[in-house]
Structure formats: structure tokens, C-alpha cells
Amino acid sequence: MKLAQYVYSLKEAIEKIQKKKIPFDSKLNYSNFQSAERKYIIESYNRAYERLIALSNNISIPPKVSLLLDKLDHDKLDKNLTIICQLENIISDNDLELKDDKPKITININKIPTQIRDEIKADLLELDKCFKSDCLRSCVILCGRIIEIGLHAKYFKETGFDILEKNPGIGLGKLIAKLEEKGIKLDPGLTQQIHLVNNVRIFSVHKKQRTFNPTKQQTEAIILYTMDVIGKMF
Asked: Which of 85, 142, 173, 180 has the greatest count of CB atoms below 10 A from its CB?
């Protein structure tokens, strides 16, 4: 993603606000087309502004760009427009490319049994969307689901028996124990990874005294754990 795209979005929103003379303190609603349009423009400005502010900590942002981003002030449009012009000059000289901040959700799909390949692919696409949208608890839940699908497929591949028919509600811990009973040994580190993802998933899904809200970094680690688990399982 190029920095120029983020800068242009904020500039475009500011120019629309100034052209239409939209005040920040106005009460906007959807009662008519004009107010709905104004609400949309303000929301576009807020999204663009927050996106650029968040970029100040991106590892690929040069210090001079980061300093300019730190000077942005939400309620001072003229000041922000001046900063954007400075950013545009830097961008045109360097054509800066931002490093992606999301985990590499990749896996050798050809190693996955054909029976579950489409299901895994669909979950990986959903996982990618959730991470990009900061739906972090949803990411954890999907990771648990992906591992569960993989373990059931592993059990069927090794034993020829579909354990879901007899015990559809079996948990991941019991499923691992069933695999070991059949002499199907999982790497000790792999087992620990599975338990980690499962425990976090349970804490995210079920009602507790304190809700578990994973950070971006924790979620990224869980996703990478999950990819490693599935990659080693087949």
C-alpha cells in the first residue's frame, strides 16, 4: 500500500468539508439527502485521519514523515492541509511504499486433504478480513475452528473413522487424546500450540467475569501459531 493513497484520502475529505462548509459540531442525521451526505463526508474524514495517525508507528515510515503525521490535529483543517502538501512533496520524491502490517496468512493448500480444502480456504479468507478490520476476537474464534477442522480430518485420515458421527461435540483436548490413543503422536510443541489457541478461543467465546480482548500482536501470534499447526499436521 502506498502512503500517497492515505494522504490523498484525507486531502479529498478536507476539500469536500471546506467546499460544502460543513461544521464539525453540527448534528448530522439521515433526515434528508444533504445531511446524509455531510455525515458521510465527516465519517470519511475521520477514517482517513485515524488511518494516518496510526501510521506514525509503522516501521517503514521515515522519521521526517512520522514527525509530520504527529503534527496533524483533528479539528484544524487548514493546518492539516498544509501538512498534507508537505507530505505530498516527500511522497513524490520517494514514492514511499508501506510494509504490510498484517500476518502472512499463508499455507500450502495442496497439503490439505481435498475433503476440507475449500472449507479451510474459506476460513482463511474470513480470517484475513477479520484481522484487517480489527475484529480480533473473531480471529481467535476462527483459529480454533481451523484447528478443529484439521484435527478431525487428521483423525479420519489416520483411522478411517469419522469421529464427528459418534461424538459431534468433542473438544480439541479430547480429540488430541483420542489421536494419541490411536498411536497418532503429535509433536509436543504442536500440542502446546493447539492448547494455547483453544484456551484463548474459549476465553473469547464463553461468558467470563472479565472479557478477553486480545491485542493486535497477540492475535497475530495466534494466527501464525494456527498456520504452523495446520502446516505440520498433514
From this structure: 142
* Angle formed at CA 18 by CA 15 and CA 19, multiple of 5 degrees: 80
Cβ distance 120 to 109 under 8 Å?
yes
Specify the 3-state DSSP secondary structure of 186.
Answer: coil
**What is the phi/psi pair of residue 95, to 5°?**
50, 55
pTM above 0.85, yes or no: no
CA distance 118 to 135: 23
pLDDT on residue 89? 81
Cβ atoms of 178 and 207 within 8 Å: the answer is no
Contacts of 192 (CB under 8 A, 6+ apart): none
**CB burial class (10 A; 0-12, 13-18, 19+) of residue 4?**
middle
Any alpha helices (H) in the chain, and if so which ranges?
3-20, 33-54, 63-70, 77-94, 114-132, 136-159, 163-166, 172-181, 188-205, 216-233
